[in-house]
Amino acid sequence: MLCAFCCFFSGISSLYAQVSISGRITDKTTQTPLIGAHITLDGSFSATYTDESGNFRISRQKKGKIEISISFLGFKTQHYQFDLKNDTILDIRMVGAPLLGEEVNIIATRAHKKTPEAFTTITSKELQTINLGKDLPFLVQMTPSTLATSDAGNGIGYTGISIRGTDLTRINVTINGIPVNDAESQGVWFVDLPDLASSTDNIQIQRGVGTSTNGAGAFGATINIQTSGLKQDPYGELSLAAGSFGTFKSTLRFGTGLMADKFCVDGRLSYLTSEGYIDRAFSKLKSYYLSAGYYGKNTTFRLISTSGFERTYQAWEGVPKDSLGTNRTYNPAGAYIDQNGQLAYYKDQTDNYQQDNYQAIFSQTLVKNWNMNLAVHYTKGKGYYENYKQGESFTEYGLNDVMIGSDTISTTDLVNRKMMDNDFCGFTFSSNYTMPEKLKVTLGGAWNRYFGRHFGKIIWAQYASNGDNERNWYYNTGLKKDFNIYTKINFQPVKKLNLFLDLQYRNVSYLMKGSLDDQRNLDQKHTFNFFNPKGGISFDFSDRHQVYISLGIANREPSRNNYKDADPDRIPTFETLYDAELGYNYRSDDFSGSVNLYYMSYHDQLVLTGEINNVGEAVMVNVPKSYRLGIEISAGVRLFRKLQWNANITLSSNKIKDFTSYTDNYDSTGQFTGQVQENLGLTDLSFSPDILIGSLITYRPVTSLSFSLNSKFAGRQFIDNTSHKNRSLDPYFVNNLSADYSFKIKPFQEISLHLMVNNLFSRKYETNAWVYQYYYDHQHFEESAYYPQALINFLLGITFRI
């Protein structure tokens, strides 16, 4: 199959007569060749690198006016425009950059052209045209194998993302190389970082185990985010957006530019509010970003502070399945029966959280081709969510029954708060040595410490017992330490051949103490030592053709929930992933394409089987064998000078090899009698569609105006691991239309208008769900809830730049 695609892509290029641009690139000061300089043909898919003599050649299938860009670390990016009529030879002499840029800080965590793996990089320019309020997962879901979901139904508030069927608890996320995943749950909540995209320079998504980095193991992908970099000139920008469901977003960005040729300050203030598509699923979000930097020829030092606050009404419970046909926006959260016997909803059934992040990043060029980076970080997180409960037993909260006269009151209506208070700190480091076109070596690592407190209070009760507002009905802590060290080597023994080796050692220790909300004791300690090797080979047949193969191993420790929910007699163990990737890339003026085959074999993957612990709660258990086998195909084509089409498709098979399900069983009196066990053999992994298609068609009639049609198709997804069609999400096909127009008018440098029409054809679809099945008096029953997404809706934005 891979050979067939190679021949197909090659055949496309042979249809056109070609002219070429070639030449030599040198350092203007020393006259030495620059090996590995990057040359791109703007407005096309063509790109190449200089060889060991500084020479390059890039072919073009059409004559006419063109622009090429040339970049090299430590030098100013240069642009050349000319009318290409015949083969052209250039002599380019690059000028060294007077300042060291931020890009040296992310070398250790990023994949590049010769890295043998599948990855996609999204630029700030691509983000800004669609950044009208939706959370980050919805801004990147057009990348291959990616799906986004929203609790509130409109992409604002609590959102999630999956890549190759794995969710954010199994995706390694970093910002400037610093881990973002919560140390205990291993999840990432972008709602705690509102409008992060407005302070992002670029995002790289690596599919599979990815390159060695810091934080949790990547069991499906890695998301590396780089925040905004140095801007030489002062700037100011105000962005406003409004639309359906009472959505309003305002963002103020500003920067001093480079002061005294050394210093700069950049900042952002954001406010976002929305009522949500689902009833009462409002979001009130605030955030800021502040960066102060020193930039020298060989040194950079940056202080970065970000903070996000979110208040969201809970929409976690989903819409009951039997309500989908009658009321798709119904939200049962906070429901209770008031004193008049009427259905009411508690107004503060909300989630409230603030997260403050601080980074200090230092980069230093030691000698030519050798630099080092050191980052220190601290994150403070604190918040709570409230629940209105009716008929709660006093004993469940460690309280005494209440005596009123001769009557004993054993239950009460109450409001509880579940609270978190955590601190996360540590440092990362890397040292990078480059021998151009021969060798790149990185030595890096990190040490991180997390301490979290979990506790609950009763803030109101219908009947007062022997408690007060300051009493904790449960309190537990988690102390987690994570150390890793790694080395990465890219070696090019001969021209066009690159060998890659990545070795990581990771040590994790986790100590939990205290009591859970059901009064169980949590005390336990776990230690892990992981060795995660990766290696691969890439070969460039020419500037247009590249093939690669890679093998990697990743290990992942169980999360806090895996431990706290586990049966004491069956503690979960760590998971291991063996990942093999085989790919081919092709690039020409008007066409680019890639094919990537992957096989991800899991040992002891933690999944839901329906099994329960000793107090009747569902637990995740290790299944011995499971896998993901797939092919990812991406292509981009310039159909006409003004029309471009980018598309991707993923076809996959995602299976548990020998699955046994467990279903609760109750007799006719409602008494629990145990679980029904059923061996189902080969079944599908949940939330892993066997087909995903993304399409983006862009038409640009003039430079300042563009129209885009963004389409996504997702195949059937099972919501548990039984492969039962009744317990699945139907396939869906959704289209979004956007338009952007920019013009100049004094005193502004530019004004941009943005329009987004989401779910253009008002398709009814759901992106997430949960199910609970049980037997009652020998009959099978199910309870389930789904997360519907909004029908046709609009967002309109305007941006003023000075």
What does this protein structure show overall?
The protein is mainly beta and 802 residues long. It folds into two domains: 2-97, Carboxypeptidase-like, regulatory domain (Immunoglobulin-like); 235-333 and 348-801, Beta Barrel (Maltoporin, Chain A), CATH 2.40.170. 3% of the residues lie in helices and 61% in strands. It has a 22-stranded antiparallel barrel. Strands 8-13-14-11-12 form a five-stranded mixed beta sheet. A hairpin with a 6-residue loop joins strand 5 and strand 6. The longest helix has 12 residues, at 2-13. The chain is globular and about 100 Å long. Residues 12-17 have low confidence and may be disordered.
Sheet with the most strands?
Answer: 22 strands, antiparallel, barrel
| Unreliable residue runs | 12-17
- Number of DSSP helices? 4
Rg calc: 28 Å
What's the quaternary structure here? single chain
- The span between the termini is 52 Å
CATH homologous superfamily grouping of the largest domain = TonB-dependent receptor, beta-barrel domain
Name the beta content range: over 45%
Number of domains: 2
> What does the average pLDDT come to?
90
Helix-strand makeup class: mainly beta
Please identify, by name, the CATH architecture of the largest domain: Beta Barrel
Q: Which fold does the CATH topology of the largest domain refer to?
A: Maltoporin, Chain A
The percent range for helix content is under 10%
Features:
single chain, 802 residues, mainly beta, Immunoglobulin-like, Maltoporin, Chain A, 2 domains, 22-stranded antiparallel beta barrel, five-stranded mixed sheet, 46 strands, 3% helix, 61% strand, globular
